[in-house]
Amino acid sequence: MADAARLARARRDALRFARDARRLAARHRRALGDARGAVDAAAGEVTAAARGGEPEALSAALRRLDALWEEHLAARVKPWWREYAESIALAVVLALLVRAFVLDAFRIPSGSMVPTLVVGDYIFVSKVAYAVRLPFTHLRLVETGAPRRGDVIVFENPRDPTSDYVKRVVGIPGDVIEIREQVLHVNGVPQPRAPAGDYAYAERSPSTGEPLAESCRRYREALAKGPILPPRGDLPGDAETSWQAAAADGVASYDVLQCRRARLASREGPFEVVRPGHVFVMGDNRDLSADSRGMGGWQVPVGHIRGRAALVFWSWGDGGLWPRGAGGLRLDRLFKPID
Questions:
Q1: What does the H/E/C string look like for the chain?
Q2: Is 266 in the active site?
Q3: Are residues 37 and 117 located together in one domain of the fold?
Q4: The predicted structure's pLDDT at residue 209
Q5: Residue 112 is part of which domain span?
Q6: Does one domain contain both 215 and 168?
Q7: Which segments in the chain show pLDDT lower than 70?
Q8: What's the whole-model pTM score?
Q9: Pick the catalytic residue: 112, 126, 289, 315?
Q10: Which of these is catalytic: 126, 127, 167, 292?
Q11: How confident is the model over 180-199, as pLDDT tens digits?
Q12: Known catalytic residue at 315
């Protein structure tokens, strides 16, 4: 019984030795030249002898392969520390390439996108959603798409290049944006929204760090993605017809907050028509967002867009389940897609 177990173990070790010899010879095939054929042949003999179960034949085949290993392959085996170092270096290089060209992480620092994104959310940003860019520049190497209404984007603020903002695209080239009694209008067409109850949250004061309670009205907004033509007339049905035609190309549905009461006949805009190669952005927390409505209206050059927000992968802050206290892990927000 013991002899049979030792023979079985020897056969397994021999097959592993033959496999390793073949792999190492294939990796260094140019340097080995004709010797690779001899190694492959010897490895084949070991494999056949191990499967045949003849101890004498296996011993002879192993001696031939061992001699070839010592002559041609032993000096080419990397020490274990070098194997680990190369694996770690490769992983680091791949991670840097992914971050430079494909995917990046961004922390939400303010409440301007509540309730879609809250302070302490960490999000993944797809850097190839619109273009493949040369890292650390605005140069777009390959165009992969164009921003659409409803996209949540991370961009370099054109008025402060040291700051990255996250906002929602509400206007694309050719659009005219206007807010009438807190309702978003695109090219004169109101974008429907329905009340969705109240929303309470706490945002920390930038001066004291203490939480400031906010209670706002929540709405579900439906922003048409297709071309929005101005209404043909002044009848209510004309605007609805224009919205329905644009909605045939898709609708972005998301929640927005209004923390101030609407004033009768209040307006913001109409703002300057969105220029080619630019977008108009707004925060979902409409009354507490510094966005394209400020300073008479400003627009984001497409070249300043770092990518499209895709997923909340981590969230830590007030209301977290564990640990208790000033902040904790918000399990309900982990791996939440960004609409």
A1: CHHHHHHHHHHHHHHHHHHHHHHHHHHCHHHHCCHHHHHHHHHHHHHHHHHHCCHHHHHHHHHHHHHHHHHHHHHHCCCHHHHHHHHHHHHHHHHHHHHHHCEEEEECCCCCCCCCCCCCEEEEEECCCCEEECCCCCCEEEECCCCCCCCEEEEECCCCCCCEEEEEEEECCCCCEEEECCEEEECCEECCEEEEEEEEEEEECCCCCCEEEEEEEEEEEEEECCCCCCCCCCCHHHHHHHHHHHHCCCEEEEEEEECCCCCCCCEECCCCCCCCCEEEEECCECCCCCCCCHHHCCCEEHHHEEEEEEEEEEEEECCCCECCCCCEECHHHCCEECC
A2: no
A3: no
A4: 60
A5: 97-337
A6: yes
A7: 1-3, 78-83, 204-211, 322-326
A8: 0.75
A9: 112
A10: 167
A11: 999 999 999 999 999 999 99
A12: no
